[in-house]
Structure formats: structure tokens, C-alpha cells
């Protein structure tokens, strides 16, 4: 049975206005569904309400705007349906475009930051280990829990904003230490020195999601020098194929200095050993392109590309002369774009024909020029969702293979991986 | 089930409804239900092409993206959503969609959770059913309308 404290009750009863009351009713009603006994303070929120799903999306946010409601904690925004910096890229329905823009701007009126990114962990301020937060967007949730050691349940539409406005969240799920213990162990094969290593992280993540579902796993055997970008790819893929909200990488992530720590001293329910062959099989399943098939585009940056990934991309471009032979898109945040403009990377890539997309993503909204044909990506998440969302087929390879393929205009795989 | 033929359930959102049962395998409303057209569009779903409008949706749980809450709320708003929902698990995505539709539009779609035995009976039910869920967090009752008891 949920018990609200005096402040929660005052919010619910309208002492802070009708918007806060609505938000508290939603938090409290949801807490009851989750079986929470109390609410806890949160220190940040990340909102996934900027994608337009119809009038109900707007009605919800505008109800708060009309009540002059503001968010109570630092709150970032996930991608919207439009690139507000490059609005000309959108070629969908005009009515939807206007509603989608209204939705993004209504969130700003509530005091949310204009981050419009699915990778809020790449912004200047990010949560620390142990921070209680309310984040939405599956890849951001898994990154915050796993790589940062912050604590969030799987928040989604409506509840994320209600938590941001009240600064409160149900004390349940991954906010609670015991629920963060790994229940299964996944033994990864050694792929540390294989070429195109980025793909193995995403493929392993994809397999993890299928095997673990919503169960917390401890992964052993990942390369000790696994980068944040590689763990980002792993988590995003795992959250696409399953409901993974937390994994531990033993020796790498903050709650897993040892396997025993990740398991919180308990024996695992099962141990799954994964071979290189299994990873190769998942990779083949995600890929619909054969070597030599013509490409309409390459799309990178799902989740949004980091500055480090852009630096790698520039190095790969330096290996190739001449023009790109297909369209080339990279999704990122406007915050990362500003940094690229300062260092000159944005200008270098623009000159080589790369279209940087911000505020949104190429697989959720019509921004790519051509939407019929084969698109190559290194993202497990993009490969999983794009065919149903925007109707393209997908060739799946490493960043290096994607770049080489773009300069050939057709699918190229390194020998070792094809 | 008690002697009067009512079957017991827990109420996640209050309301009253009666209608034909549409038994569904887990559906992701986002990408799986077109709330404007009012039909299931997930190609591989066994109920592809069916509408939920006016039906009692009997589904173990949702699957997929949390954006499904928005799509369900939109479907309830425009009348293409179910009139009542029976779940086997306390699904957060479905619950939030129903709660927000209730808060924004005052529509009360009863949302209840039942145990495995009752769920299996309702999942196979070919007759209309009635859900009586007066209080959130309280007990609800479900009746098969033809006089047949559960």
C-alpha cells in the first residue's frame, strides 16, 4: 500500500497548482500498479515525450503548459520527429510536421533543456553512481544504470514527465539495491583484437536481450579496454531485442568490480556461454545485404554519435579519396554538433558529403532522401527497427565497412566477417 | 469464481465495461496498432487487421517500446481503443496509457489483472463479458454474459 508524505499529498491536493496535481496523481496511480510503498526524490529526468504519436501526445504536455507548470529537476529531452536545426530535411506530412514542432516546443516551455538526444549521457552534466533518476528511452536507461551506475526504472511516456514535474518517483524496480543484482552470467568470447570490433558489441547486446529479457545479467570476458561507445552499442541493442535495463560488465562497470559483487553474493540462476560463431550468426540475421549490392545510403549514430566516434569517422574518411557514391547520414545531438563545429570536424565531413542529422534520428522519421532500397549501418538498434519503421532493408557491418561501402556505393565486408 | 458466477480480479484502473472478447498475443501498440485507422498493423501478429474498438482486450502483457502508452492513450481518446482490458501481469505500459487517458479525457476504461486460471478461461471465451471494477486498487468482478459461469 502506497503511503504519500505530507509534501506528496499537498502536491496531489493542488497546493502547487493543477499541473503538479495531475502529475502527482499519475505518479501515485502508477506507483500503486508497481506495488511501491513510497515515493523517492529524483535528481534528474530524461523525457521521451517529444516524438509525435497523435493528439494525445500534445494534449498531455499542453495541459501542463496551460497550468504554467515547470519541471522540478534538471530535465533533458529525447529526440523529436524533426531536426529543428535542419528543418528542410523533413519530407513527411505537413500537418504532422506542425504538430511535431509544437510538441517539441511545448516541452521547452515546461523548463526542459533543448537537448533532443537519445544519448543524454553524452551531455555536459550526467548522473553519478548511486544517483536516483527517472529516465526514459531504452538505450539511455540501460546506459545510466549499467555504465554510470545511476538508478532508474524503465520509465516511458507520460510517467517520465510526471516524475520530472513532481521530482518524485515510485520506490520500486531498479531504484532498489537488491533488484540490481545479476541473476544470470553471460560468458563472452574474446573478440578484443578482431577487426570491426564495434559490431561484436552490438551483436552481443542483441543476443543478450534475446536471452535475458528483463533479467539483469553479468557479462564476463569483455575487452578490459571496452569504451563507453562500445558499451553504448551493446546496451542499445540489448534494449531493442529484450527489455534489458541493466547489465554488469565484470571489471568494467561500477557495480561489478568482481563477478561476486555483480551477483551481490548470490549464485546465478544460469550461466550462458556465447561463442564467436553465435555472434556471427546473429550478425548474419541482422544483415540483408550481400557483398556488391547497391546502397542508397549509410546511416550511423543510433544511439547518437559521440565526439570520439566522429573522430574515428574522420580518420576512416581520410583513407578514401574522391566522392561518396551514396548518401551518408550521421545522427547526433546539437550539443555534439556544436563541439564538432568548434574543432572543424563538422566542416570537414560536410565537405566530403556527410549529412549530419540532429534532434531526431533517421529511423523514426522521414529525413533520408531515399526510403526505398538498401541502407548500411553499424547500429544493431537501427538494423532492428528501420525495416518496419521506414521501409528500407538493412546491410549491417562495422563502421569501417560502412565507410568503405559508401565510397564504393555498394556493400563491402572485410573477409574475416563476411 | 464465486457461486454467482462472477470471477475475481484486481483493479489497476476503475470502470465498467461489457463487450466481446478480443484475445491477443502480446502486442506492441507502438508500430503495432494504428490508432487513426483503429487496427492492428503488426504484420506477424495473429490478429493483424483486427480492431480493438468496443472490445474487451484480453492480453497477458504488452511488449516492446514504452511509446506504446501514448498510442494506447490516443486510441482511447479517439474511440479506436478497447472498452475494457484484462491482463495477466501488472503491465506498466498498458496501465500508464489507461491512467493518462482517464486523467486527460475522463474516459474510464476498466483495467484488471486476473490469475492464470481465470485468464485462460477468458482468453478462450467466445461470449461477451462484463467487467465491474468500482475502485482502483480494489477488487473487480468479471462475468461471462450468456449465463455461463467461469
TrEMBL record, chain A:
MF (Gene Ontology): lyase activity
Domain spans labelled Phosphomevalonate dehydratase large subunit-like: 4-404
Keyword list, A-Z: Iron, Lyase
InterPro entries named among the record's database cross-references: PMDh-L-like_dom
CDD domains referenced in this protein's UniProt entry, alphabetically: AcnX (cd01355)
Lyase keyword on record: yes
PANTHER family: DUF521 DOMAIN PROTEIN (AFU_ORTHOLOGUE AFUA_6G00490) (PTHR36577:SF3)
Name of the protein described by the UniProt record: Phosphomevalonate dehydratase large subunit-like domain-containing protein
Amino acid at each position: 500500500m502506497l503511503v504519500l508524505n505530507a509534501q506528496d499529498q499537498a502536491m496531489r491536493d493542488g497546493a502547487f497548482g493543477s499541473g503538479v496535481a495531475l502529475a502527482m496523481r499519475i505518479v501515485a496511480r502508477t506507483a500503486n500498479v508497481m506495488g511501491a510503498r513510497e515515493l523517492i526524490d529524483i535528481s534528474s529526468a530524461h523525457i521521451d515525450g517529444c516524438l509525435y504519436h497523435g493528439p494525445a501526445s500534445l494534449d498531455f504536455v499542453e495541459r501542463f503548459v496551460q497550468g504554467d507548470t515547470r519541471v522540478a529537476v534538471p530535465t533533458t529531452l529525447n529526440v523529436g520527429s524533426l531536426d529543428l536545426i535542419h528543418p528542410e530535411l523533413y519530407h513527411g506530412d505537413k500537418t504532422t510536421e506542425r504538430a511535431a514542432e509544437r510538441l517539441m516546443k511545448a516541452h521547452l516551455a515546461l523548463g526542459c533543456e533543448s537537448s533532443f538526444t537519445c544519448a543524454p549521457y553524452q551531455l555536459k552534466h550526467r548522473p553519478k553512481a548511486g544517483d536516483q533518476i527517472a529516465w526514459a528511452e531504452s538505450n539511455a536507461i540501460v546506459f545510466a544504470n549499467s555504465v554510470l551506475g545511476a538508478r532508474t526504472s524503465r520509465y516511458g511516456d507520460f510517467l517520465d514527465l510526471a516524475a520530472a514535474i513532481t521530482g518524485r518517483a515510485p520506490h520500486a524496480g531498479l531504484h532498489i539495491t537488491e533488484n540490481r543484482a545479476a541473476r544470470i552470467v553471460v560468458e563472452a568470447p574474446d573478440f578484443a583484437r578482431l577487426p570491426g570490433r564495434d559490431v561484436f558489441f552490438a551483436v552481443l547486446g542483441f543476443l543478450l536481450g534475446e536471452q535475458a529479457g528483463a533479467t539483469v545479467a553479468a557479462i564476463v570476458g569483455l575487452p578490459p579496454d571496452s569504451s563507453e561507445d562500445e558499451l553504448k552499442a551493446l546496451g542499445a541493442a540489448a534494449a531493442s531485442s529484450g527489455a534489458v535495463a541493466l547489465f554488469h560488465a565484470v571489471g568494467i562497470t561500477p557495480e561489478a568490480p568482481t563477478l561476486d559483487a555483480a551477483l551481490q553474493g548470490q549464485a546465478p540462476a544460469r550461466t550462458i556461454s556465447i561463442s564467436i560463431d553465435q555472434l556471427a550468426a546473429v550478425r548474419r540475421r541482422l544483415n540483408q545485404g550481400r557483398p556488391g549490392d547497391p546502397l542508397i545510403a549509410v546511416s550511423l549514430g543510433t544511439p547518437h554519435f559521440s565526439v570520439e566516434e566522429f573522430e574515428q569517422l574522420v580518420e576512416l574518411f581520410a583513407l578514401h579519396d574522391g566522392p561518396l557514391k551514396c548518401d551518408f547520414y550521421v545522427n547526433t545531438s546539437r550539443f555534439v554538433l556544436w563541439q564538432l563545429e568548434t574543432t572543424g570536424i563538422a566542416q570537414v565531413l560536410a565537405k566530403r558529403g556527410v549529412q549530419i542529422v540532429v534532434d531526431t534520428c533517421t529511423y523514426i522519421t522521414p529525413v533520408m532522401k531515399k526510403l526505398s532500397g538498401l541502407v548500411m549501418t553499424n547500429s544493431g538498434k537501427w538494423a532492428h527497427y528501420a525495416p518496419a519503421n521506414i521501409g528500407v532493408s538493412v546491410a549491417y557491418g562495422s563502421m569501417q565497412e560502412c565507410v568503405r561501402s559508401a565510397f564504393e556505393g555498394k556493400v563491402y565486408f572485410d573477409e574475416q566477417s563476411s | 469464481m464465486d457461486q454467482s458466477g462472477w470471477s475475481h480480479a484486481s483493479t489497476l484502473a476503475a470502470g465498467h465495461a461489457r463487450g466481446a472478447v478480443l484475445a491477443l498475443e502480446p502486442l506492441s501498440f507502438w508500430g503495432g496498432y494504428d490508432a487513426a485507422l483503429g487496427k492492428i498493423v503488426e504484420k506477424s501478429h495473429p490478429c493483424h487487421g483486427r480492431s480493438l474498438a468496443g472490445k474487451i482486450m484480453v492480453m497477458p502483457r504488452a511488449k516492446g517500446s514504452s511509446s506504446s502508452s501514448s498510442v494506447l492513450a490516443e486510441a482511447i481518446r479517439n474511440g479506436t481503443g478497447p472498452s475494457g482490458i484484462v491482463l495477466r501481469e501488472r503491465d506498466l505500459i498498458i496501465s500508464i496509457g489507461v491512467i493518462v487517458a482517464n486523467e486527460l479525457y475522463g474516459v474510464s476504461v476498466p483495467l484488471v489483472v486476473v490469475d492464470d486460471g481465470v485468464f485462460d478461461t477468458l482468453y478462450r471465451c467466445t461470449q461477451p463479458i462484463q467487467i465491474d471494477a468500482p475502485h482502483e486498487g480494489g477488487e473487480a468482478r468479471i462475468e461471462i454474459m450468456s449465463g455461463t459461469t467461469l
